[in-house]
Amino acid sequence: MHKIRTTFTVSDFIVDELNSVSQELNEKKSHIVEKALSMYFDHIDEKLSDQRLKNLDDKKEKLIPADEVFKELGL
User: Fold this and answer.
1) Does residue 1 carry a pLDDT above 90?
2) Model confidence pTM above 0.90
């Protein structure tokens, strides 16, 4: 996996907490942030799935059968 350097802004409380955890665990801050974001994205994926299922139940969205999609794409 290719690593990309990026910049973002967070509160001083988060930076202090990150520094503290990094020092105590003797882990790089970038590693801690990457693991935390990965866990958060897993959580968000679950919430999105739940929301999509609810939208289907509430008839706000509908399923399109795969054969219709394939036909439209010429597959």
Assistant:
1) no
2) no
